[in-house]
Amino acid sequence: MSTEVKVPTLGESVAEATIGQWLKQPGEAVAADEPIASLETDKVAIDVMAPHAGVMGQHIAAEGDNVVVGALITTIEAGSGAPAAAKPAAPPAAAPAASAPAPAPTAAPATEEASAGASVLSPAVRRAILEHGIDPASIKGTGKDGRITKDDVLEAAKNKPASAAPAAAGAPASVPASARGEERVKMTRLRQTIAKRLKSAQDTAALLTTFNDVDMSAVIEARDKYKDVFLKKHGIKLGFMSFFAKASVLALKDIPAVNAQIDGDEIVYHDYVDISIAVSAPSGLMVPVVKDCDKLGFAGIEKAIANFGKKAKDGKLTMEDMKGGTFTISNGGVFGGLMSTPIINPPQSAVLGLHRIEDRAVVRNGEIVIRPMMYIALSYDHRLIDGREAVTALKTIKEAIEDPTRLLIDL
């Protein structure tokens, strides 16, 4: 008996996806509700589950193919199947190395094993493994169902034993100095969509960025003072993002244009604040939406952000998670960025960019003192938001961060 597996409903207004990766090969045994393929849409990656236990049928669509909702992509056949068709292929890869004289066996294993496991590794992960010379078998995957992510490879490279360095250094003769390689990897559907949206924002909106700097002393002091009590009461750590989210709510309520959007020849004003928070995921930067930030407390915002961060790392963000949003906060500071000009997330009209905190000399009461300072940037659509409004909104955020009491008394 054979059961057809078709492309599931992908979400509102989404009719097409790309086969990102086949997680099961023909002839392999599959369990009920086990992921067998990963589909990439314009916004998220979605796993296709096996409808019941059986044997994986032939791939009707190849990786990289576009498929529409309802299209047949494979079948699940009756039977038990092989435990894993891909894994028995590993020994033959090792056999030539054993029969060869092997003058310098340390130069190739990482590459050979990466190639052997290429069918279960994404292109970005595969490239990172090759660049850092990491054995994929030694990496514990933190992605969905234990899949290896790029962050896992980078973490393994960071913790790579120092003894591995001399071995690599001792084999330069086996790799010609002039050897140069290239790899062409097709852009994922998500990356193509991100590229189109960002370019569209530049082509459509009249983008402008205004800057300010913030003394983080008061927020750092408040966080250090209450973080233990906050964690004990709410079960979540108190971070800086909730302070900036609440400060942004103040600014957006005072300057409604920054929370609005252009729709044709009309301006749509929102009486609510849904903040898109940029988070890093294996497939790229994602912007899930913390809804009703104006009604949430610090704990509610922190829990929402932590939940999105975990879902992003596990590849479980849904379209519903990223639907809507009236304003975006992007924190480049976690990567060490000092200053940037973020691009708005259409159809939104503004985005707040946060950056790294560093001690700088500033003047306070006529004296030069050292303070933890952060540059903040507000990019906005000048078609809707005037310079005065943008500067005022950013100044409101600055004042609320430098004096968090304003967050309590709505100033």
3D architecture notes:
The chain is α+β, with helices and mostly antiparallel strands. It folds into three domains: 2-77, RNA polymerase II/Efflux pump adaptor protein, barrel-sandwich hybrid domain (OB fold (Dihydrolipoamide Acetyltransferase, E2P)), CATH 2.40.50.100; 87-174, no CATH class; 191-409, Chloramphenicol acetyltransferase-like domain (Chloramphenicol Acetyltransferase, 2-Layer Sandwich), CATH 3.30.559. The chain has eleven helices and 19 strands. The strands form five sheets. Strands 9, 12, 15, 16, 17, 18 and 19 form a seven-stranded mixed sheet that branches. It has a four-stranded antiparallel sheet with strand order 1-8-6-3, with no helix packed on it. Strands 5-4-2-7 form a four-stranded antiparallel sheet, with no helix packed on it. Helix 3 (123-132) packs parallel to helix 4 (150-158). The longest helix has 18 residues, at 217-234. The termini are far apart.
Number of helices: 11
Which topology of the largest domain does CATH recognise? Chloramphenicol Acetyltransferase
Give the name of the CATH architecture of the largest domain: 2-Layer Sandwich
**What share of residues are in beta strands?**
15-25%
| Stretches with pLDDT under 50, minimum 5 residues | 85-119, 163-172
How large is the radius of gyration? 25 Å
* Biggest sheet record: 7 strands, mixed
CATH superfamily of the largest domain: Chloramphenicol acetyltransferase-like domain
User: What number of domains?
Assistant: 3
Outline:
The protein has 411 residues and is an alpha+beta fold. The chain has helices spanning 90-99, 109-116, 123-132, 150-158, 164-169, 189-204, 217-234, 241-254, 298-314, 387-402, 405-409, and strands at 2-6, 16-22, 29-30, 35-40, 45-49, 54-56, 66-68, 72-77, 207-215, 261-263, 266-268, 275-277, 279-281, 284-286, 289-290, 327-331, 350-354, 358-364, 367-381. Strands 9, 12, 15, 16, 17, 18 and 19 form a 7-stranded mixed sheet that branches. A 4-stranded antiparallel sheet has the order 1-8-6-3, with no helix packed on it. The chain has a 4-stranded antiparallel sheet with strand order 5-4-2-7, with no helix packed on it.
